[in-house]
């Protein structure tokens, strides 16, 4: 189209024999956007990324970068002509080269030498907190350190699009948190377009400006993290992203928010009338434990039994059983007794589409 678009993916399909790994996937990625491809293992994330990089051809559809066609059924621009850099799930370092030589290799290939070269390598290593390891050989590093070397090597050549395939998957939790901040810093400083593959929804939400949620090769929702969290389209997306409970009510329709009064009315309707699935996030649940023995439910409260309590540091996570038999996940600042009754009020809910 006439719009200036960073990366345009239009109805791209990839088949391996009978199996469709990516199924008519379309995304418009703006220049400089940080995008996550999020979905469970096997949903086609790596395949989509490899098609962007040029390591895989496409069967149908087109991939365009700044209105230049990189891939279609009869076009295939080779990887080295795409100005993209990819970090693989299994980081491939050259074993006979030092960390610094591994990192500097892409810019050395382009003719960079001397102080400028040293500076580039130093900056890239600093970004992944490996300044002190420049002279080490890869086999003298831990798995996490090797992954960071692979990252530094990707970042050193200032690519216009950076493709990352689960780059933090092999790192411990503490380092992942540090690296999440590094990624955001890197993105802000370079302005590069980032496409980041992960199966981890908290990682995707922490990092990305926009998230493409994939299931079985298809795009199921595309939007900002806040939108996916607050307005998930389907029951499946709601279950995949964030914590929450899905309850049946007799009110509302998909894509609509139910305020407290309508939600409580819908929940109190007779069972046979409840046909709409509603997502209730834990932060929209108020709990009162003062009526510990016999709760007299009002129109704005439900009685619930405490079936599980988990301590999470800053809060307790409660599993509550509602009169309907449904369970509800709630947060609370203290731990009620197991088996006790609490009064629950729901501030709002979000109506979901059923899954296909
Ligand atoms: P993800 O990265 O989301 O885990 P992949 O893109 O690796 O998923 O794989 C998607 C599907 O395509 C899987 O069912 C996988 O087995 C299949 N697949 C991936 N690559 C190939 C290949 N080269 N040959 C055959 N099947 C493949
Ligand atoms: Mg993968």
Report on this model:
The protein is α+β, with helices and mostly antiparallel strands and 356 residues long. It folds into two domains: 7-233, 3-Layer(aba) Sandwich (Rossmann fold); 243-351, OB fold (Dihydrolipoamide Acetyltransferase, E2P). Helix content is 26%, strand content 32%. The protein has helices spanning 45-53, 99-109, 114-127, 143-155, 173-190, 201-207, 225-230, 235-240, 260-268, and strands at residues 7-16, 19-29, 34-38, 60-65, 68-72, 75-76, 84-87, 161-165, 193-198, 210-215, 218-223, 245-249, 257-259, 276-280, 285-288, 302-311, 316-321, 327-332, 341-346, 348-351. The strands form four sheets. Strands 7-8-9-3-10-11 form a six-stranded mixed β-sheet, sandwiched between helices. The protein has a five-stranded antiparallel β-sheet with strand order 2-1-4-5-6, with helices on one face. Strands 15-19-16-17-18 form a five-stranded antiparallel β-sheet, covered by helices on one side. β1 and β2 (19-29) form a beta hairpin. α2 (99-109) packs parallel to α4. The radius of gyration is 25 Å and the shape is globular. The mean pLDDT is 91. The structure holds adenosine-5'-diphosphate and magnesium ion. Magnesium ion is lined by residues 45-46, 89, 165.
